[in-house]
Write a structure and sequence with these properties.
Layout: H1 2-27, H2 37-66, H3 76-101, H4 106-128, H5 140-158, H6 168-177
């Protein structure tokens, strides 16, 4: 059951990814204060790339080196398909940033992404590895699950609770209402 713990690690890290990425891009500043907002997204994505370098290059390289397998055993097909997978992941991450730039909010964008991705995954995996007995052998529960994932993503998107109003307004009211010392 170790795989399940790792799956939940991915759920947790990808579950906060959109919100953290949105926060990173909104906190990017320019020296002049007058900058194209898309540049802030690209700056944030640059640091996502740096994080990928640290986590996805250095960590496996150290693990492979510790097992004496860092510089051998690579195949052309394995390299090509792994690079394609990496490009797909990076394009998806960049798509999230572009969605934010087009006024998408993290809670909505990520709900659509995480409801839609399993549907795409299921059909793509079936196209690559068709079920025994063909497509006609797929149980109706599978299609019900696909429908529920899509409906669930829509429900979360449309009925996501609105955020609370900013706290700064209340703080200013309270501080102005309190008497100062010596008055």
């Amino acid at each position: 059951m170790t795989w399940l713990a790792f799956a939940f690690l991915t759920v947790a890290s990808w579950g906060v990814y959109g919100v953290l990425l949105h926060k990173g891009q909104t906190l990017m500043k320019s020296e002049t204060g007058n900058v194209d907002p898309s540049l802030l997204r690209y700056k944030a994505f640059l640091f996502v790339g740096i994080a990928y370098f640290l986590v996805a290059i250095l960590a496996p390289l150290l693990l492979l080196m510790s097992k004496g397998a860092a510089f051998s055993g690579y195949t052309k097909d394995g390299i090509v398909w792994s690079l394609i997978a990496g490009v797909a992941g990076a394009v998806g991450a960049f798509g999230v940033l572009l969605a934010f730039g087009a006024k998408g909010q993290p809670g909505v964008v990520m709900s659509i992404v995480f409801a839609g991705a399993p549907v795409v995954n299921a059909f793509y995996a079936l196209s690559q590895h068709p079920p025994a007995g063909g497509w006609g052998s797929i149980k109706p529960q599978f299609y019900a699950g696909i429908l529920l994932a899509a409906v669930g993503g829509c429900l979360v998107t449309f009925y996501k609770p609105a955020p609370a109003p900013p706290m700064k307004a209340k703080t200013a009211e309270v501080s102005s209402a309190q008497p100062r010392m010596g008055q």
